[in-house]
Amino acid sequence: MNIEKELAKRLMDEGESGNRQEAYNHEIGFYELVASGNMARLEEALKTIGSTQSLGVLSSDKIRNVKYHTVILTALVSRFCIEAGLEISVAYNLSDIYIGLIDIAGSIDEVYAVQNDMLRSYCRKMSDLSKNRVVSRHIVVAIDYIRSHIQENLTVESIADSLSLNSSYLSKLFKQEMGITLSHYIRDQKINVACNMLRHLDESSLTIANYLGFSSQSHFIQVFKKSTGMTPEEYRRKNYHQSWMGDSEE
Could you tell me the sign of the dihedral formed by the alpha carbons of 191, 197, 200, 203, in that order? Predict the structure, then answer.
């Protein structure tokens, strides 16, 4: 097969690339969701993933086609979770286990069942990551609340209110058990999400600032630069699409 000729033909048949870009952005968002450890949001996403996803043709055999796509999904989720802090040996061994189960699945429904179990396993591992140093139930719930409401303008007071706790007590307890202030933790979590968006998506600083509940674009840029030493655009130029595909060529 003439690869370049086939590529040119497919690009011509595909026409405008807007749909592919939208699909790509959606996929990246889904990988980030799993890596965030937000089990509640994952369960909501799993209600539609099997029935709405549109798969490219990697094989003329229907079940093999689904298996190929599920193996790719497993590999990418594994790497996104490694980026977010999951131990490499855990991520890779989990990936190997699920790829083996995908291989022996006898039907498309079985493949999707393995897929969903894989997604839950990785998401649960990521959820446990931030809790393994935590002693009190209050801090566990506070961390879950932050992850579930990362798009909001979170404050110590709003989190304390949601847990029916005194804000001073929660602040003291969080610093004692996590080693950093609650405000610092909130900021770090928002900047982590912003970094992932800048690495993988084309969204503007304004869009990211609005998405993460910052009061303004300028405030977002100020906080981002203080945390990373770079402006959002400087960070994007240095890291865009480099995180799981390896270092860029010199």
Answer: negative
